[in-house]
Amino acid sequence: MKQLMGVINLDHELDKLNELTYFRCGAAVPFASRYRLIDFVLSNMMRADLESVGLFVRRKYRSLMDHLGDGKSWDMNRKHGGLFILPPDWNDPTDTSLGDLQHYHNNLDFFKRAAAKYIVFSGTQHINSIDFQDLYQFHMEQGADVTLVYKKIDQLQPEHDLCLRVEVDEENKVTNIHHEKDHHNLYLDIFIMEKKLFLEQVEYCIAHGESYFFRDIIQKNRHKFKISGYEYKGYHSVINSLESYYKNSLELLQQDNYFGLFKENPVQTKIKYEAPTRYLESANVSNSLLANGCIIAGTVENSVLFRGVQVRKGARITNSIIMQKCIIEENAIIENVIMDKDVHLSKDRILVGDSKRPFVIAKSSKI
């Protein structure tokens, strides 16, 4: 869509997944047996055929850049437009911008050169399958300056505590933006606005010593703009803590959740050519999600296994998440565990975590 460009802003997403974010940013954390968290928003933008997408990163982005490459897996390796990975570059001694305004100020050319007239902004912590074309049409029909995306949550969870809430009237107008924990309309860190208005407000923010665009322009000045609320009704989960990562990963083993996320809108990721998973005669697998390249000779129950995992004979994995190329030796027992990639667990070892606070093994460990 030539009228629309995308921005994925990671600046405000803190790395709170403990061992999983020691060496990578949150957007690069593996999820759902073969994906990274950033794959979901990138796939949403790919389906909307956005002209260009800018990714603003500040720290621990080596793993993320390796995953994204030139954007080919999301059809964004184009001659004109496509994916732009924009690391921080503060070489201008006259630059007085702060927070995520530093990204916008130092990359004004990215916005000005794009032909698109509207920008959709998103983070990566809210997993969803939103239709950005439908959001754009809603924004135009409302005649709004800014349109925010929200999800009405029936059952609030601990991971929702950190999320902003929005209040919306019968005419889809946003009347308030706040942090009241008992409110059920969660802001999904997605909004759309005209590029010209955005650039004007960036200059205003910098001139007045502000730091963060959404907080200091939209949230603090909601009476200054016409702000509409777009209700998203599809699958949604929030990954902003280790506990929420574990819970939402295992909840994908429920068919309704899995099909809600993947059936209608396939998700793209980095292509890796590996053989299908092999199930040996002694294998016993139930209610689990396994990627390709695995070799299974033991028991796997209610678990998520990533590419290339090896489970030896007699080993048992229950309610756990085992990442890429881990090796579980004979007769080892794993329960309520998150194991980062390239971990080697010796035979006869027993690792048991709590169902609400899983035991986490850091990347490349040998136990």
TrEMBL record:
GO molecular function, one term: glucose-1-phosphate adenylyltransferase activity
Residue span(s) of domain Glucose-1-phosphate adenylyltransferase/Bifunctional protein GlmU-like C-terminal hexapeptide: 282-348
GO biological process assignments: glycogen biosynthetic process
InterPro entries in the cross-refs: ADP-Glc_PPase, GlgDAde_trans, GlmU/GlgC-like_hexapep, NTP_transferase_dom, Nucleotide-diphossugar_trans, Trimer_LpxA-like_sf
EC number: 2.7.7.27
UniProt keyword annotation of Transferase present: yes
Pfam families for the chain: Hexapep_GlmU (PF24894), NTP_transferase (PF00483)
Regions crossing the membrane: none
Location of the Nucleotidyl transferase domain: 16-181
Keywords: Glycogen biosynthesis, Nucleotidyltransferase, Transferase
PANTHER family: GLUCOSE-1-PHOSPHATE ADENYLYLTRANSFERASE-RELATED (PTHR43523), GLYCOGEN BIOSYNTHESIS PROTEIN GLGD (PTHR43523:SF6)
Family the UniProt entry places it in: Belongs to the bacterial/plant glucose-1-phosphate adenylyltransferase family.
Name this protein carries in UniProt: Glucose-1-phosphate adenylyltransferase subunit GlgD
Organism, scientific name: Paenibacillus monticola
Source organism phylogeny: Bacteria, Bacillati, Bacillota, Bacilli, Bacillales
Gene it is expressed from: glgD
